[in-house]
Amino acid sequence: VQKSRACFSNMSSGDRRESLSLVEFNLSSSSILKIQKEDITRWFVDGFSDAIVNPANVRMLGGGGADGAIHRAAGPQLKEACYKVPEVQPGVRCPTGEARITLGFMLPASHVIHTVGPIYDLDNNPEASLKNAYRNSLRVAKDNNIQYIAFPAISCGVYRYPLEEAAAIAISTVKEFGGDFKEVHFVLFSDNIYDVWVKKANEIVGQ
Ligand code: AR6
């Protein structure tokens, strides 16, 4: 397996560093799953077609959490690009479980794939919706020749999906549909979420 030069940019000082918390698993003979504790807005793979996944809402015009951080780091052009994504219903650019792609603008990653996870307490079938969000993000990435993709813990913040269940869905969906990417990354913001993801990955894709 050819190793990538995945790294994290530090936009304030301009230097780069490798993440300290990192584990790797093989998804297939040519594909790696990496789990890291980092800020997804700083993730990129130097010289390759890369995308970060934005846990957005159906309006797709920004919000709090990772969505807010991604919009701030990308600059106002990202919102302009999102406005241009056609509404499928009034106020809905990306229905729950679907995905849309834009450029990354000022982000270090070249593309942003916007997806909408389920609001855990309101969704009729949160498992199916969360699986669709991961699967459709991978599908949109593939259609756009993305080779390296980084996911946050979709729905695990404001949308309050239970962590262990979300991790199981995230990792099993990536195992099922992510085997032809060069690398699929989970870039997780806290020790707690990182630990849950590593434990589930050991169960689901560990040797
Ligand atoms: N890098 C990586 N992960 C992050 C970052 C970051 N910079 N910032 C937060 N997280 P959330 P959701 C983690 O709430 O639950 C927004 O308002 C965070 O710790 O961002 O899908 C949208 O507009 C959590 O584990 O997304 C929607 O309205 C995970 O990212 C709504 O929130 C997801 O938390 C979407 O809610």
Rounded average pLDDT: 93
- Strand elements, count: 10
Q: Give the low-pLDDT segments.
A: 11-19
The SS-based structural class is alpha/beta
Approximate helicity band: 25-40%
Strand content: 15-25%
Shape: globular
The number of helical runs is 5
Strand order of the largest sheet: 3-4-10-9-6-8-7
The main β sheet shows up as: 7 strands, mixed
Gyration radius (Cα, Å) is: 16 Å
Distinct ligands? ligand AR6
- How far apart the termini lie comes to 16 Å
Compressed to H and E, one letter per element, the order equals EEEEEEHHEEHEHEH
Salient structural properties:
single chain, 207 residues, seven-stranded mixed β-sheet, three-stranded antiparallel β-sheet, 5 helices, globular, binds ligand AR6, Macro domain-containing protein
What's the structural blueprint in terms of helices and strands?
Layout: E1 6-9, E2 16-17, E3 22-28, E4 31-37, E5 43-45, E6 50-55, H1 65-74, H2 76-83, E7 99-103, E8 111-115, H3 126-143, E9 148-151, H4 163-177, E10 183-188, H5 191-204
Parallel strand pairs: 4-10, 6-8, 6-9, 9-10
Antiparallel strand pairs: 1-2, 1-5, 3-4, 7-8
The structure holds ligand AR6.
Ligand AR6 binds next to helix 1.
